[in-house]
Amino acid sequence: VSLLSFLFQGAKAPPCFRAGDVNGDGSLELTDAVYMLNHLFKSGLAPVPPYPACGFSSREGELSCESDAGCD
Fold this sequence. Notes:
The protein is built from 3 helices and no strands. It is an all-alpha fold.
């Protein structure tokens, strides 16, 4: 919901864009929300690592992570 609100309703940007890039393509788009919903409700492919563990992605790319906070 947060990702969709950001993409389509001008909601506040998430503190870590990388966390929203669940398909690992280096961008934050509608496809990420669809990918996540497909995983949650239709047993689709899981998000890219570090999922299901808590932690930071080792992927480099255009998306930044402004938050240094760890996982709760």
